[in-house]
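Handout, section B. The chain below has 122 residues.
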Amino acid sequence: MSAPAVQAYELYRTSSSSPSDKIYSLGVALTDTLDDLISSNQIEPQLAMKILGNFDKAFAEIIADKVKSRLSFKGHLDTYRFCDDVWTFMVKDVSFKLDSQSTLRSDKVKIVSCTNKKAEGT
């Protein structure tokens, strides 16, 4: 049996974000708490998955509605692929420029983009 596909809005829970990032910390704390509840037989794994699904959808909707910042980036495209309506890009030597004109750099970035099912009406 294959592993379930990871939705784009689930990636923040498995990314290598800084622990000081509050959303990342919140997602990790929720996941850890649900794991503890499953381990102690207080909830079923199916309920934990439903809770995470609701959290992920709410997170994605809030980000789409409330975040108005823009970001641009430059880098060297290392690899790319398109599979099951999901684009994946691996970019090296990336420079990010934020609205505030601050610049961030990273050696390697993975970008995953998928179709917005809500926009398609499904």
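Note. The mean pLDDT is 79. Compare this with the example in section A.
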